[in-house]
Design a protein that fits this description.
With 260 residues, this protein is mainly alpha-helical. It contains eleven helices and two strands, in the order ββααααααααααα. It has a domain of 96 residues: Alpha Horseshoe (Serine Threonine Protein Phosphatase 5, Tetratricopeptide repeat), CATH 1.25.40. The longest helix is centred in the N-terminal third of the chain and has 31 residues. It starts with 7 loop residues before the first strand and ends with a helix.
């Protein structure tokens, strides 16, 4: 006669289970494996408690575990951004051809500039940020504020995920803030830009843009004066971002010289 063990209730998930471990969640049914910090059951083979993050060996979360927290948050943010963008693009890709044509016609640049959901998934954070920045700027030039408001939060998330931030990325981020009314945020980015790259022309160009936005004529004059004072030395550096934004640099220089 075969004796069947009566099922017990798993202390972790509440499912009926038999044996030493729960077949639903893997938690110990013997009570032997429990977190030394919060006393919650530990799944078989677990190295860290899923409830409090403490090491399975006992004690509070280690310094190494604490150091990983920013990376875990960044990873979660990256997943959220990628999921948001892929869902948005996939929705458009599934639209009927006539609807796609209407969407494309209504977008600045004929709807060009945003990749497919599959392409987006393969992009680096820098590529995603640049693509989103260009999308917002085209919309702003076309007066399409709805698109600006739609894509700016995604661009800010992409900026936060960059492995490194240079003057060019800060210039882009400050411009994004300005186009959504974030003057204090733009000022903070400019302050950091000039702190990290003293004399950089983008800093004075942004100061001029912020002053114009705030209707601060004296601020505009100060920004133009500082720009001209640093122009020759900066251009001699041959920084690639100056070539990439040559039109903006030339336009600001012309305006500064015209007012001096």
């Amino acid at each position: 006669m075969t004796v069947t063990a009566s099922p017990t209730r798993c202390p972790a998930c509440g499912a009926n289970a038999t044996g030493r471990f729960c077949s639903s969640c893997g938690s110990s049914l013997t009570g032997a494996a429990a977190c030394a910090s919060c006393r919650q059951p530990l799944p078989a083979g677990a190295r860290f408690c899923r409830h409090c993050g403490a090491s399975a060996g006992g004690g509070a979360p280690t310094a190494a575990g604490t150091d990983r927290l920013p990376w875990l948050i960044a990873g979660a943010s990256a997943i959220a951004l990628l999921g948001l963008l892929i869902a948005f693009l996939a929705k458009n890709e599934k639209a009927a051809p006539a609807q796609q044509a209407q969407v494309a016609a209504a977008q600045p640049g004929g709807g060009e500039g945003m990749p497919s959901a599959a392409d987006l998934a393969a992009m680096s954070p820098k590529e995603r940020f640049d693509r989103l920045y260009n999308r917002v700027m085209r919309a702003a030039e076309a007066g399409d504020q709805a698109t600006v408001e739609q894509f700016s939060p995604m661009a800010r998330m992409a900026y936060a995920q960059l492995d490194s931030v240079d003057a060019d990325a800060r210039y882009h981020m400050a411009m994004l803030y300005l186009h959504t009314g974030g003057v204090p945020e733009a000022k903070a980015v400019v302050d950091t830009l000039l702190q990290k790259s003293p004399g950089h022309l983008f800093g004075y160009m942004l100061q001029g843009s912020i002053a114009r936005f705030s209707q601060d004529d004296k601020g505009v004059a100060r920004a133009r004066k500082s720009f001209l004072e640093h122009y020759d030395a900066e251009i001699k550096k041959g920084l690639p971002e100056y070539n990439e934004h040559q039109r903006a640099v030339d336009d600001f220089k012309a305006a500064a010289q015209g007012s001096s």
